[in-house]
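Researcher: I'm preparing a figure for a lab meeting and need a structural model of a single chain. I don't have an experimental structure, so a prediction will have to do for now. The sequence is pasted below. Please return the structure as tokens so I can convert it later.
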Amino acid sequence: MHITIFGTGYVGLVTGACLAQSGNHVVCVDIDEDKIARLTRGEIPIYEPGLEQIVHDNVRSGRLRFTTDAEAAVAHGMLQFIAVGTPPDEDGSADLQYVLKVAATIGAHMNDYRLVITKSTVPVGTADKVRDALAQALNERGVDVAFDVASNPEFLKEGAAVEDFMKPDRVVVGVDSDRAAEHLRALYAPFNRQHDRTIVMDIRSAELTKYAANIVLATKISLMNELSQVADRVDADIEQVRKAIGADHRIGYHFIYPGCGFGGSCFPKDVRALAQTAGKLGYETEIINAVERVNDRQKQVLFDKLSAHYGDLAGKTIALWGLAFKPNTDDMREAPSCTLMEALWAAGAKVRAYDPEAMKETRRIYGERADLTLCDNAEQAVEEADALVLVTEWHIFRTPDFADIAQRMRAPVLVDGRNIYKPSYVAQAGFTYYGIGRSAASGATRHVV
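Model: Understood. Here is the structure written out token by token.
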């Protein structure tokens, strides 16, 4: 099939590369000339395991191309995906200006039937606005060309996006015509070889499904984080609680790991956007609003534990392991590390940090600062540090030599923001340990200096 994808960000690039990998001819279009030039040279702007190889393979094969020529891109594909950003507006609602601009661009250039598919995460009712933008553009040209609009939300986890696309749990398709449904079933047939994972529904239900999925997952995280706060106060161990409740198949183990809050490009934005959508319709989403409040509070917990230990943090040096919002990505959007670093700087502390992939992004966001040292490795980060904070649970941080780490530090204090270490083991190396909802009974050594 011939496919056009507007947008070469995270969703657009992964979608384009994976659809080309399954034998389609894909053109990805973007207005950023420098970005298109870099992609054409094989430079991938994001870190995502497996993505670089399939982009290179399909560019070489001729199945994947990049361009800034919107007219040629519209002429190329019968299927036109809209995968541009929907950043939060000032009130938290999704900004649709880029989505609607692409729809108008498609309408300005299409001369034959096109199926226009929203891949971006968009509020319920966006397909109607896309349809109106297409119709208006065609009307201004005085032409009558048939088209369909569909919704095909993405469910890609950063760090596992290629695998998620190639082996999906489900493919959600929102359509209002049999013709659109037939095209999309054909497109996703290669991904349904063992059994049909395609779920066809009306467009508005598909648009809501994306938000609903992310908010259910975000709710599980915030609920577990709130329970961790209770565990801290009643001297219970949330990790033992997690294992016990996860054994209940109705609950399961996914997304019940307590930590220092969620970040990234999806969960925070989608929680706010759906709350805004409902609010404009006169309905207050109390649980959804609470998810955001709990998450914002949880992002403060690492700083609070450091403050409780030292009191005044002015002049202290704090080592951070992990800067990206999650492992296997360089994405720092709304990352807990940002909340922590900014609070430490405001308190007069210095930061030494290391992340396997997010160092360049950290420099882009914060520039050169006297109170920020970006280190070459994890060991360098802890040199002369007054405390070490594990923020992102990269595998490289899972089995450190704690005896060696303690000797490098000015004071062996560890704040485990993801509960990946066994408190008693860390304590044996001489550390004062603070986890998320970990009790003294779990073997942690706690005292206040």
